[in-house]
């Protein structure tokens, strides 16, 4: 066999946008195991197949929790944004999560254009009659000159009763108004409060049925769609666009003395449009990928706590009459915990990507492969240190390493023969299965590991010679590349290829660097 018979080369273009992290700390495994690893694996699989995939996103520098971090540290918000943006980059880089752009909105290179883009978007929505003023009541602390909203308010979720704060509940995923919180308290302490009458801009959801139908077409699990339904039934068919505050992208509301800024969570679609403009400029495209006439496939990934911003606000903004369209696919996930408890920066209950890879013997491939198996896409999942160590020792240091070394040691001479049909046919079938798992809709990160493991099990039973070992190792590079890119790329290079593993050049016979050892 000299070519794959059923595996078709990709020819699509993807813009992948993982959720925008707040730069008030680094990225721990709870963050990395969901949206960021997922987008990187998806991108690598599509590029391996011949499609183009770009990852654009940025930090949510104007989120209200930057106010809290500033209050806690006595430092300016922008200084903190710059510091933690760099720290988040180091966590992403440690796990080999690659991106085309990771935007820092307070960086002078972006700041002016970023703010102008958001203000223009809000004004266009207002001009088109899509926003309405909704009366609200806020508690206000005169002593601290602070409104009990965003990071400053704590209480009980009106939906599920869990302890929560700000505008959305991490337990049930819903969004609410501060005035609806039960037993609300001021995070700064027991200060005298007074009630302020105000109003904020909300987007009316005029196409509820169309919105829910689009969610169904994306293949999103019913448990996530139910969050959108419950929000619309409980809060009404509208979603917040502004909130009271002094730090952020200012929005003037006539006749209201309360300062207002863009609510960045429900403006994540606007942020995505900004990423689309950067994509358009970088690749010299005529249209933003979200343009209705664009052929680029757009995908977002996020945690359950951002369900309403993406599934209600984002789709609500996009399906209204205009030039832009919704995301083609949304890939949500549940929470990933640490030893059955939430990751927590404040309690020191966290494992940071950079610390794990650069300060321990753990490799990026090992943690990536484990996180793919444990990914919380269908239910909450947990990182247990003992489970991880056992997994590494048995799966990677055992089965994988033994099979790889056996295959590599078989390369006693330069292979020249065409690949055996059994090897090529089996590999083709596994590549098709894996690519199906890593192409939305129906994206399944955990299941994408099964073809890789099956290939290793197949190799563990083989009696390798130079020919079979060569072709099996090349197959391993292809199947491992999305999940374990460092190992896959190293083997691919040692086998004589340039660049990253690609399906279309699998059958090329190369000059192997004989005599070298696998790292």
Could you give the order of strands across the largest sheet? 3-2-1-13-14
Structural class: alpha/beta
Low-confidence stretches: none
> Helix share of residues?
40-55%
Largest sheet: 5 strands, parallel
The percent range for strand residues is 15-25%
- Rounded radius of gyration (Å): 25 Å
Shape: elongated
**Average residue-wise pLDDT:** 93
H/I helix tally: 15
Please report the total strand number as a whole number.
Answer: 16
Distance between the termini: 31 Å
Account of the 3D structure:
The protein has helices at 29-49, 65-73, 77-94, 111-127, 208-217, 222-235, 268-282, 307-319, 353-358, 364-373, 385-409, 421-437, 449-460, 466-480, 485-494; strands spanning 13-18, 52-58, 101-103, 131-141, 146-147, 153-156, 163-165, 182-186, 194-204, 238-240, 242-244, 260-262, 297-303, 329-333, 336-338, 381-383. Helix content is 41%, strand content 15%. The model has no long low-confidence stretch (mean pLDDT 93). The strands form five sheets. A five-stranded parallel beta sheet has the order 3-2-1-13-14, sandwiched between helices. Strands 5-4-9-10 form a four-stranded antiparallel beta sheet. Strands 7-6-8 form a three-stranded antiparallel beta sheet, with no helix packed on it. The radius of gyration is 25 Å and the shape is elongated. By secondary structure, the chain is of the alpha/beta class. It contains 15 helices and 16 strands. Helix 11 packs across helix 13 and helix 14 (466-480) packs antiparallel against helix 15 (485-494).
